[in-house]
Structure formats: structure tokens, C-alpha cells
Amino acid sequence: MKRVRITFDPPDAALPPVYELLTRGAGYLSTVDIVNWNVATPPAAFLLRLGGDYDRFESELDERGEAFPDFEWEVLPIDEAACYCFLAGEVGAAARALFENFTRDSLLTVPPVECHADGSSTFTLVGRDADVQAAVSGVPPGADVTVEEVGGERVASESVAGELSARQREAVEAALDAGYYDEPRRATVEDVAAELDCATATAAEHLRKAESTAMSALVGVRDR
């Protein structure tokens, strides 16, 4: 068995409009995780776990329903800052090809799939070595795959730190080293971005996602 954690950045043409709203168009959501899915046969169905202002997201779905004519949805509140969201509907051939690429042969995707504001997602694949390699190398033109971690004894997260992506952990470590979490604060997000050699907005997103995951796990909000 091989275990690999990857960040997958699909081509724009493969992103369903509702997914674009969830990621690129919903900065008021602190977390967007796919916790279960069924894409074996049309229609595709997804169970999401959303953190943040999910009422606003539901309102946008209702207001822009004509943009998602092939989807139906239901929001299931957990508390004031988190909910589950059921989505079901038709997806295009390009999107379905992406799903099928990561469900081929012996492959299993370990939930949750963490969705990011740039449209990419991070998740863990488990399967035979050859099947994992075929999926990573078999993404369509225009897609990008970054291998975050290979192997290890743990399949699913067993700690708060284990729930963070490699880049989120790197951002938190850089922030701690720089004094971003000191009181009084000795560093800014710009300083963290400089350490990571990335844009300020990217560093801010990594820290925001890491903080949301850590705090939610600490108080038992997330059902991982």
C-alpha cells in the first residue's frame, strides 16, 4: 500500500460553477471540506462541511440558483459557525474525468478533501503503488499536482497538527519563529509571507485555514 497527500489544482474549465462559488467566490467561509461523496453514476453528490458565514452562502445559492440549474442543495446547521451542506447534480465531462482519475482501480481518498480559495484541494490517496502513481501522473493538461507528503505510518489525522496541510504547518512554524503569535505581536503577515516566499494573501489564507482547523478541533466542532 502507498499513501500520498497531494494538493491538486485543476484547470479552470473543469471547475463546476457551484465549486467556484464555494472556493473563489466565498471568502466569508473559513473552511470548505468535502467529507463524503458519490460520483459513481450521475448525478454526483457531495456532503460538505462549511465553517464561517454559511447563511450568506445559502443566500447566494438561492439568489444565483439559475447559475446552477442542474444542482439541488440543502444546508444542515451544526452551530452558528459551521454546517453541513448536501449538494447533488450533474457535472461536466471534464469534472467527472477528474473524479474518476482519483477513484480508479484500488485507490481510496481519505476524507476530508480540503478545498482552498484558489480552487485547489488537498487530500490523501491510499492504494497500490502503481495506481497512486497512475493517478498523480494521469491528470489532464492544465492541471497541477503537488506532492505534500509520501508514506508514513498514519493514514488519517490523529492530532490537530496532523489535520493541517504541509504548507499550513510551514506557515504556522514561520509565524511562530517570526513572533507573529507573540504578545505583543512582533511580526506581520507580510513578514510571514517573506519567510514563505509567497504572496501576502497566500500566507494569510494558510494561517487563517490553520487557525480555523486548530480552534475547531480544540473545541470539538469538526467531525473528522
Characterize the structure shown:
The chain has 224 residues and is an alpha+beta fold. It has two domains: 2-150; 161-218. It has seven helices and eight strands; from the N terminus they run E-H-E-E-H-E-E-H-E-E-H-E-H-H-H. An eight-stranded antiparallel β-sheet has the order 4-5-3-2-6-7-1-8. A hairpin with a 5-residue loop joins strand 6 (108-115) and strand 7. The relative contact order is 0.18. Mean pLDDT is 84; it is low at 220-224.
Number of domains: 2
Oligomer: single chain
Taking strands numbered 1, 2, ... along the chain, how are they ordered across the largest sheet? 4-5-3-2-6-7-1-8
Rg calculated over all Cα atoms: 18 Å
> Class by helix and strand content?
alpha+beta
Major sheet attributes: 8 strands, antiparallel
Mean model confidence by pLDDT: 84
Helix content: 25-40%
Q: Which percent range describes the beta-strand content?
A: 25-35%
Q: What separation lies between the terminal Cα atoms?
A: 22 Å
How many DSSP helices?
A: 7
H/E element string? Answer: EHEEHEEHEEHEHHH
The count of DSSP E runs of length 2 or more, i.e. the number of strands, is: 8
Gross geometry? globular
Show unreliable segments.
Answer: 220-224
How would you describe this structure in keywords?
alpha+beta; 7 helices
Compose a concise summary of this entry.
This protein is α+β, with helices and mostly antiparallel strands.
